[in-house]
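Example record used in the benchmark description.
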Amino acid sequence: AVFAGNAAISATTGSDLNTGSLVLVTTGTKTYRSSGGSVFVNQAFDNTNRNIAIHAAQNVAVNQPIVNFSNGSTLDINAGGDISVNAQIDGRGGVAGGTATLTAGGNVLLNQSIVSNNGTLSLNAGGTLTPSGGSGLFSGSGTINVTTGGNLSTGIYSTTGALNLRSTGGNVNVDTKINEATGNTTIQAAGAVNVNQSIANIRNGSNLNITAGSNIVLNAQIDALDDAGTLATPVAGGAVTLTAGNNVTLNESIATFNGAVNVTASSGTLTFKPGTVFTGDGDAKRILAGSAPI
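Model output (structure tokens):
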């Protein structure tokens, strides 16, 4: 074992590193680093641990629970290859505000959920983020940031704070509902943004901003007025801004509660299908903004 009081301890190997074979005792920062291989988290980190950093030239596999940031500390995991979350990373209880940041040069495989106590959760993947088995990101009122280099298909993101989704090299597909409790939401894609499930965050007065390098296709409603969630009365003012480098196709309606609506197809066309814009019933697709400008 290595004892350092409240000073930082750093353990570095050139090959694979198994955290279960190391006993590092400190109330300071613990750093586990493999400069040439992978890191396997084969021991649980409880809330007596403070800041933890896990860095690997290749992959990081979280095989045991990590709960250190439930005491308000930070968790930083960085891999040149993939990060596999095979055990829960959980910051609930204790002190609010502990943060977790995962950065992978390859993919992030979310096989278990990541939960914070109102702290920011940031996941960055050079490739893709792949959730499984109902896993998701849960942050209370903390911000959730998800960035991928490849296509991003949205998963379960639960927060009353800000939600920021970005693909730096592909498309963003909104394949799960963004509910009425979510705060200000920003969706950015180098390619297209395809809204395949409804977005209702504007119902609580928060804003929605979608930017695409190519096209925006709205296949599900952006709606402040007709959500089946727990917020009985919508809050006025949530604005919607859609900005596409090429085309915007509205196959479903946009409805705010006195929030401004701005739709821009910078180098293409704005298409409404089917029906008539602004007026009509039945299958008509409309932009409704109450008393706000369109």
